[in-house]
Amino acid sequence: NAGVTQTPKFRVLKTGQSMTLLCAQDMNHEYMYWYRQDPGMGLRLIHYSVGEGTTAKGEVPDGYNVSRLKKQNFLLGLESAAPSQTSVYFCASSYGTSRSNEQFFGPGTRLTVL
Amino acid sequence: AQTVTQSQPEMSVQEAETVTLSCTYDTSESDYYLFWYKQPPSRQMILVIRQEAYKQQNATENRFSVNFQKAAKSFSLKISDSQLGDAAMYFCASSYGGATNKLIFGTGTLLAVQP
Asked: Nearest-5° angle of CA A81, CA B96, CA B46?
């Protein structure tokens, strides 16, 4: 049982390049989330999904797109990377049947945009 | 709008002593949950404790307990018998968005444990 995994762990991009971050969970969770963590700002929600085939915007969605084609996977895409997207990205998942549900986090991806 | 405020960027405690981390929040939700997450240097986010807002009884998990004051919108974390492994960044979070179970986080408190 690997929990929540994220690929890759580190990445350096040049401004204007695109990339996709992959999140996978093996706990059969319904809900999945993408956050970014910046120094002094805590974690902020980018996009989330409440089930396969669904996605919705969070607090800071601009410049990102997501897809949830399979229940176990949640992809975060950057179409044209900007230096402001330099951050640590976390994926999380939860059962989603109750607001008390813990969100389980992946190990994070450190992205640097030059 | 939902907000979570952690006013202590850094705290320090001696090993075996007790420390309290502060958190205040504001929410328009009638039913919500509050959480404390720990982030050690490994970067992995780990749930420490959760509190159901409709329960008056404060949650406790071994050496970790909370002081939940709903009217004051305050949710502090007390760590008793501090251990070196408790050194980490601690984030307070509040759920919102009804059944979507979204979380809004505070900016964190970096806890150092002195031997």
From this structure: 70
